Amino acid sequence: MAAAPLPTRDGVGPSRVALPTGPWPTIAEFLVQRFTAIPRATWEARIRAGEVVDQHGTPVTPTRPYQPRLHVFYYRSLDNERPVPFEEMVLFRDEHLLVVDKPHFLTVAPVGKYVQQSLLVRLQRKLGLDQLAPLHRIDRETAGVVLFSVQPATRHAYHALFAERAVVKHYEAIVPWRGTPALPAVRRSRLVDDTHFMRMREVDGEPNAETRFELLEARDGWARLRLSPVTGRRHQLRVHCAALGLPIRDDALYPTLLPEGTEDFDRPLQLLAKSLAFRDPLDGRPRAFESPRSLAL
Known about the structure:
This protein has helices spanning about 25-35, 40-50, 120-125, 150-165, 235-245, and strands at about 15-20, 50-55, 70-75, 90-95, 95-100, 135, 145-150, 170-175, 185-195, 200-205, 210-220, 220-230, 270-280, 285-290. The longest helix is centred in the middle third of the chain and has 12 residues, at about 150-165. The chain is built from five helices and 14 strands.
């Protein structure tokens, strides 16, 4: 992929939008109508500042005619992002890989209303690695081990490990515990998008999600489980635990969706991506990384 025509700024690369066939008289008018959450005055200010360009680096002007199939690049900016008061920790770094222990409440990469408060942007700013890219994702609410690719030239080899399910992943979770019924060794089900965009749900049909369960300890009405996902569906562990009547402690989505704005930094989701292991595709060496964090009953 060709380099973006705008440089990284404050750790964030430019966003890109492809212009479809349509009736807009100008590129500026398309942007206003396409991104309704962004005021017209904001687009006008970005254009005046030269922060909206095409794939050739040519600036978009207020009157530039609309051109289907053109790609337009621009900087995203969000006002008043709520700072996440927890720090990430670098566990390992070489010329190809960066392994990081992510705190709760950080998205892995910019999404929606989270840009500066994302793990990728924090790392790019601190380490100066503009070409850094996540090799997989964990939920914003989940803490633990995340792998990043440092070099685009070797990125595909590490991506293939996840596509081929060649990475062994173990999570830990705190759930309510009464001792009955017995914890199943595995749960397989079919997960699909729920009617609410933030959630997933189980339906009848061919399973596309599989999780293995192990009880690590239990006391005082709570248990610590090891969860080993065989597949990597969105919210898979959270849905499977809730479906077993064992919702993860402080989960704001499952089994009940709590109102927006109820998030509490003092009560993070008790789900931890504890470890990752795989055979390095470049030199064949076994690799294993573990979060130093722990969950307490």
